[in-house]
Every structure is written in C-alpha cells, then in structure tokens.
Specification:
Elements: E1 27-28, E2 34-38, E3 48-55, E4 58-66, E5 81-82, E6 88-92, E7 106-113, E8 116-124, E9 139-140, E10 146-150, E11 160-164, E12 171-176, E13 184-186, E14 192-194, E15 197-204, E16 212-218, E17 224-231, E18 239-241, E19 246-247, E20 253-255, E21 257-259, E22 264-266
Antiparallel strand pairs: 1-2, 2-3, 3-4, 5-6, 6-7, 7-8, 9-10, 10-11, 11-12, 13-15, 14-15, 15-16, 16-17, 18-21, 19-20, 20-22
Length: 300
C-alpha cells in the first residue's frame, strides 16, 4: 500500500519586491538550485525571475531579475529553462513592442557573469505573423535552439509554434494554427522534444472544438510537418488541454485538461486528442486569484 504524500513549504513569497503570484514551473540545476518566475511583484511590479538555493538552514530566495514592463517584457508565466551552460530562457506575456496594448511580449535570455545576471531580449513579438502573448516555458534542444508557443496572433490569428536559432536568435514560425482541425491557441504547457520531434497541445479548436494534441516532424529542408494526434471531444474524454504533455518509458503520452471527467492518456501506438477558442494569459494589473491547471511530472 502506497504511503500518503506530504507537502513541505520551502519558501513563501512575501509579495512586493520579493515577487508575487508564482504561476511557474521550476527548473533545477546540477547543484540543486531551483529557478522560477513570478507574474507580479519585483522592483517594478511586473514580475521576477528568482532562484531558491538549498542551505543547511533552509532555502535562500534571490531575485535574479525584475521586469520593468517596458522593452524587457513583463508578467512572465511558467518559469525558465536552463541550457547546458547555465543560461536561463523564458517568455513574458506583456512588454516588448508591437501593436498590442501594453506590448506583445518577449522571449528572453538571462546570463550569469560573476553572480550578476544580465537580461537580453532575443525576440520581441509584434502581434502579427509571429504571434503575441507568449506564456509557455521554452524548450532547448542539444544545439541550443529554442522552441515555444504563442497563444494568439499568427497568420490566422489563432496562435503560433516557433523556433529561435541558437546564437543568431533568428525567429521562425514553424506552424501557424488555423483554428480548424489543427487547433488554436497553444497551451501553457512546455513543448516536449523527443527523438527530434516536437509534441504539445492546443487549448481550443480541433474537429470537436475542444482542443488537440499534436506532433511536429522536422524535414531536411528545415520545414516542419504538423500532425494532429488526438482531437478532444469534451465528453467523455474531457477537453481544453492546458498543461504540457509527458511521455512514460513505454512511449505513452499523458496530459491534463481544464474540463471533463478524467485524465487523458494517449497510447504510443494510437495517439489521438482535440479543441475551440484561443487561450490568452491574463494581463494582471491587480491582485486577484486565478486558477490554472498545470502539467504533470513523474516521480523517480
């Protein structure tokens, strides 16, 4: 019989300069330090990137960067991703430039030099074909290329999946959601990279209007082929997937939805899923509760 799980709070945010509303995944480095984001708070009230370091006397919290809400971005959701060199990458829903009120969001890099972290905007979203309001965590491949999703904007105003090339930071849309059978509004979940293929979920659209799970396959030409692997029906299989997907050792996919009766599993030999309407991250201007369903993790 499995033992009951227990919860141990390792740090409670104080708000204001400390940061608040930590709608974040956590990244961990080889020393056991944790990294995440807060949507609000910080020196300018537009969110933070933070580090939690384990010590014999408990966890020590440090704000690595405070967003101004201007050209550097603002309101970062879902955390940061580490590369092999210890750099951090993430997205912010607002700020930057573009035609959106308050800015269309940014993708950014944080570099550590002697304990001082420097932020660089590697792409400022325009709200046009590149998308707008990115809030999902970025994925880094072995070459340092970045992959992510924007829930709105794009050629069909239904969101985009994008790639940012390592070093040059050249931005490319590898799929523009149409809002039809391919779905619309990329989810808040991190894109999954496996065997060179990308896997993820779109919160709306699809055959039944309840969201999709998808696969992107690279070609030697540099283009990508999009495939819907499952269209959600809403009932009885639930719908509107919000978090990312997760593979088990057998190649089955797992994920979560915002509505419906049960957790969805996609078998490796018969992967199917679906959706309707675009997910947008709320532009938070005051302290209010906001419920979001996050993703899954397997214990080791």
């Amino acid at each position: 019989m499995a033992s009951a799980a227990t919860t141990n709070v390792i740090y409670s945010l104080a708000g204001e300069d400390d940061g608040e509303y930590a709608d974040t995944d956590l990244a961990i480095d080889t020393a056991g330090n944790l990294y995440g984001t807060t949507v609000l708070g910080g020196a300018f009230g537009s969110g933070t990137v933070f580090k939690l370091a384990p010590t014999p006397n408990g966890w020590v919290h440090t704000v690595l960067y405070s967003f101004t809400g201007g050209g550097d971005g603002g309101e970062p959701y879902k955390g940061v991703t580490l590369d092999a060199q210890g750099n951090l990458y993430g997205t912010a829903v607002t700020g930057g430039s573009g035609s959106c009120e308050g800015g269309c969001g940014v993708a950014y890099k944080l570099t550590n030099s002697g304990g001082t972290w420097t932020q660089t905007v590697i792409h400022a979203f325009t709200g046009g074909n590149d998308g707008s309001g990115p809030g999902a965590r970025l994925t880094v491949d072995q070459q340092g290329n970045l992959y992510g999703m924007a829930p709105t904007g794009g050629a069909y105003a239904a969101g985009t999946i994008f790639r940012i090339a390592a070093g040059t930071w050249k931005f490319k849309v590898i799929h523009a959601f149409t809002g039809g059978a391919d779905g619309s509004g990329g989810s808040a979940g991190q894109i999954l990279l496996r065997g060179g293929h990308l896997y993820g979920a779109a919160t709306a659209g699809g055959i039944y209007g309840k969201g999709v799970a998808f696969e992107l396959t690279p070609a030697q030409t540099g283009e990508w082929t999009f495939k819907t692997i499952y269209s959600f029906k809403g009932e009885p299989d639930a719908g509107f997937p919000y978090g990312g997907l997760l593979f088990d050792r057998s190649g089955n996919l797992y994920g979560t939805q915002q509505s419906g009766r049960r957790l969805q599993t996609c078998a490796a030999d018969d992967r199917r899923m679906e959706r309707n309407g675009a997910l947008q991250f709320p532009r938070r201007k005051r302290r209010t509760k906001f419920d979001r369903k996050s993703g899954l993790r397997f214990s080791r």
